[in-house]
Amino acid sequence: MHTGIANLPLHGGKAPPWLFKRMVKMSGAIAEIVVEEYGTGELLKRLSDPYWFQSFSCAIGFDWHSSGTTTVSMGALKEALKERDIGVGVAGGKGRTSRNTPYELRNMGKSMNLSEESTEFLIKASRMSAKVDSAAIQDKHPIYHHTMIVNENGDWAVIQQGMWEEKGYARRYHWLGKDVRAFTEEPHKGIVGFNAGKALDMTSKESDNAKRISTDLVNDGIEHIKNEISSVSPQRTLFNFDKPVKKPEVLTMPGRINWDALRAAYEFQPENYDELLGVRGVGPATVRALALVSELVYGEKPSWKDPVKYSFTVGGKDGVPHPVNKRAMDEATKFMEDALCMAKLGEKERIEALKRLGAVAK
After folding, report:
1. Interhelix angle for 17-38 vs 50-59, to 10°?
2. Which residues contact 345 (CB under 8 A, 6 or more apart)?
3. Quick check: helix, strand or coil at residue 66?
4. CA 343 – CA 322 distance, rounded (Å)
5. How, if at all, do strands 2-3 and 188-193 pair?
6. Rounded to whole angstroms, what are the CA distances from 248 to 235, 238, 251, 285, 289?
7. What residues contact residue 62 under an 8 Å CB cut-off, 6+ apart?
8. Contact call for residues 161 and 149 (beta carbons, < 8 A)
9. Could you tell me how far CA 314 lies from the centroid of its own chain?
């Protein structure tokens, strides 16, 4: 897993129509060349790499930290792949659009002739990846953008983003389905963004024992959980138990814990933390409460290490580092489009030229 620090500040400005139209064409050309040369699986793999994705966004009109790098780049790619029959599609988007992801995945599954089982698993993977990055990892960046990239084999990747409103910084989470052993076992290909300092990370290997205790507690019943917490007094509160105690404080359960969800989880009897987190209604407060009991009662501490790296090409939408060169962008896109046409006719000179340019760039 790649971790690191990248300052991704959110600032004013948006991609104007003349630029977004070009971004759609260029992103589509890049995606089609990758698929033509290496296959659809390779495109998913590259998009799940935070370094490659950052370079990709810069190539189609963003600077290294320009606000919209994730949301607009994925929006452009989504539009581009609707127009190109290359066996890859994008579902989801920003805000309310992300709620349409299940519906879009079902339509995509039909158009790609995926089995109903495969489609339903994609919907589950979409929901679980969003829940992991909002509940299992609590890093002050609530998720507001979620996209899933799918190919004709049912393989998937996820790119989603959260925002720390107080600081005005974004954080991006990258997933690649084929490398996910379990949704709550260090599933990311990379997480990039501003270091939040302390962050509850229940996906870390260091949290394995805390996850086991959390699951056992739920399977024992919610009265057991209440009794365990009430036995620890005076103690720290639920939302500062990762910090040093300055003075004794009485522990109180937050009212927003979804006890109905915990009862449902008890009836379900989850076999592992993935299944526990998958229960509807089990959210951030519940995850923290169970982690609290695990640490204070049983001595099994969760990880509090923040699991959180980094290009210019034709210019940025806001003129950073320089205004977009429309002519250069159009010529580059035309070069790639012509290369694709020639490749389909059995003439790959231009694609070979692109490879040579890539070698020089390295």
Report:
1. 130
2. none
3. coil
4. 33
5. parallel
6. 6, 13, 9, 22, 19
7. 68, 69, 72, 73, 316, 317
8. no
9. 26
Task: Could you list the beta-strand ranges (E) of the chain.
Answer: 2-3, 88-94, 137-138, 143-151, 156-164, 169-176, 188-193, 198-201, 303-305
* Rounded Cα–Cα distance for residues 40 and 285 (Å): 39
In 3D space, the residue among 174, 19, 23, 28 whose CA is nearest the CA of residue 88 turns out to be 28
Q: Which amino acid is at 243?
A: K
pLDDT per residue rounded down to tens, the chain (362 residues): 555 556 666 666 677 888 888 889 889 989 998 998 899 999 999 999 887 888 788 778 765 555 678 888 999 999 999 999 999 999 999 988 999 999 999 999 999 999 999 999 999 999 999 999 999 999 999 999 999 999 999 999 999 999 888 887 888 999 999 999 999 999 999 998 877 778 899 999 999 999 999 999 999 988 877 777 666 544 444 455 555 544 433 334 455 678 889 999 999 999 999 999 999 999 998 898 888 888 888 888 999 888 873 334 444 555 555 566 777 767 777 766 776 676 665 666 666 766 665 665 55
Q: What is the DSSP letter of 318?
A: T
Quote the crossing angle between the two packed helices 17-38 and 349-361, to the nearest 10°.
100
Whether 44 and 149 have beta carbons less than 8 Å apart is answered as yes
**Closest to 21 (Cα-Cα) out of 84, 76, 78, 94:** 76
What predicted TM-score, i.e. pTM, was given to this entire model?
0.80
CA atoms within 13 A of residue 330's CA, in its CB half-sphere: 6
* Residues facing residue 163 across a β-bridge: 170
Instruction: State the chain's maximal CA–CA distance in angstroms.
Output: 76
| Sole residue written with tokens 């950052």 | 54
DSSP string, 103-170: HHHHHHHHHTT--HHHHHHHHHHHHHHHHIIIIIEESS--EEEEEEEEETTS-EEEEEEEEETTTTEE
For residues 109 and 116, what is the distance between their CA atoms, to the nearest angstrom? Answer: 8
Token pair 């046409």: residue: 341
